[in-house]
Amino acid sequence: MSGLNVLVYSGPGVSLNGRAYLLRTLRQFLGHRYAIIPIGADTLRAEPWETKAVLLVMPGGRDMPYMAELNGPVNTRIRAWVASGGRYLGICAGGYYGSARCEFEPGTDKQVVGDRELAFFPGTCMGCAYEGFNYKSEEGARAVEAIVDRSAFGVAESLWRDDPTKIRIHYNGGGYFVPRADDNSTRVLVRYPDDVTDPHDRLHRIKDAAAIVSCEVGRGIAVLSGLHIEYAWDFLAASSYTQPHNRGLVALMRAHDTFRRRLVGAMFLHMGLSPDPSAMADCADPSHSVRAPTVTPVFMAPARATGVAAVASAMYALTAMATHQGEYNIDGVKDMVLQDAEDIHVVTAQTGDRRRVCASYEHAVLTPDDVGPVSATDEMPESRLHSMLVLCANDALPDEHETPRFDMRAAIKYMRETRAHTAGSWLMYADTTRSTQTFLERNARLASHLPDGTVHVATMQLNGRGRGRNAWISPVGCLQFTMLIRHTQRKQAPVVMLQYIMSLAIVEAVTSLPGYDALPLRLKWPNDLYALHVPVSDSDDSSGSAPAFAKIGGILVNSSCARGEFTLLFGCGINVANRLPTTSINSVIRDYNDTHATRLATIPVERMLALATAKFEELYRTFLVYGFDPLLKAYYRRWLHSDQIVTLADRDYERAQVVGISATDGQLQVRSLQSPRTVYSLQPDGNSFDMLRGLISRKL
Is 386 exposed, middle or buried, given 0-12, 13-18 or 19+ CB atoms closer than 10 A? Predict the structure, then answer.
């Protein structure tokens, strides 16, 4: 199964804190390769989520509301998807919910007893494993000394290093799994210590109680856990644990955090996923946990803009907006704050100034600062969102220590070697940001003063955005940027066509290089980039798969209009240099070299940025004068849909043949096979095109 989406159920019944901790842990382990997407019951009920999902996660909380929302057809779909090769992870309440029967606190006022529909585990989840659970507090929580059966995971023994087999893991309200006598589809991965008691009779101790189980479900797998394996010590406040059995909980979890992380990584490997190896690494500094990265400063410098007056004017405009004094001290001078949707701390870098940014931001991605407990919503309140903008002249650019994963100096050099003026005029770069698109879209005051053509690049996006409700995955080696373009509407240059110009520009930026014309890079309507994918041995879809076209990028365009001028934000994600999770431009180049005995050079992400922005400006200037008609031939040469037969879901699944696109509004033209004189026009923003099934349906 080659899906890329990790779906996290976030409907009624889910614990808000538990959901926040779970999302951060999933992003830490899987965010490098998969899109972590919170979803509700409506998505599971009405959308075709199965084709793109690789894992469905049911968090802790209360499983009775899960039943109210999902019982019936939704559970039937989930069960069928897992049986066909999907993966299910149920934690605490999600573990109860994934069992054939739940018996929770029988005979008490908290009693929840009954059968469950998913029944991945064919026995009973009995709970609580320990008495004292309270929905409203951490009274019943403890750091359980769980016993790990390494042989059951089926992973390399070297992964465990010298870790102990007894690991302290957070517990609060979970159950233990009692198998049926005839069950041969379940293996126990982790057991509780021998202090678990029977909820029917607390005087009766249960030996070897199963804490985490792995269940074969057809061709798929379900892992159910009574332990909160997603809880890290630095998510928690020690003041919440005051009972005799949990006063030392945070300290114990802190001491065992590395072992817990390797257990989580082993679990994902056991499920056939590819966790980030860095999430399982030893901590060099025992005072820190390995955490999801935090937001780092945005460095901004002139790229193609070289005029002294223009550069000085742009920098002055930005500093003049920062009128509030900040709290951080840099070389004895308080920084100034531009108050927008978030507080943007504006700093001007000085020539030779090694310490450009304050201690709480510098290298945050490499050495995260200690932070307090996570908020219930997994987001800081808007009033607390902060970012830092460091303005750099050409003689004060950051070095490799400040931007270790992107070479700004090289990027600017490539920019100036390619012919363009506006697109890529200024370069903004952050190692880690929430989203380049969201940063410019939310902070409208800042965006209004940025020079036309400014491009904002990030190595990692914590909440990268795709089209519709999709998220964008941010593996290292992916070029992710948002470019700001101001466009005056012209009759011959309709704004709706600009997304097609950007997607064509990215493909043409590579294929127009000498010798690169035959590379199998293609366009999928309306705004996705595809390449011929040759599965590799460690990819999720390598089991005998033949080469096929797979997505390597996409375009998202947001616009606003004032006084006849559009402000456009082109959000682009292009997998340039990482052959996973599907393939990349450089992988295609290497495959082409292997099969054609050529020596085409791979393309650094910094050069790809320069090529793409320059090609966009070239095509855009043609478009402004002549419209899209002169670009149609190049577009059709690169797209995937010539004469493709498709099914129209919203027209009673009528079959039709693709004719082309309209050069004035970008609508896809398809001719009915049933009535050849009938041509349907499909709007790009109102329809979803499933390439795998040739199905076009209305977006929900």
Answer: middle
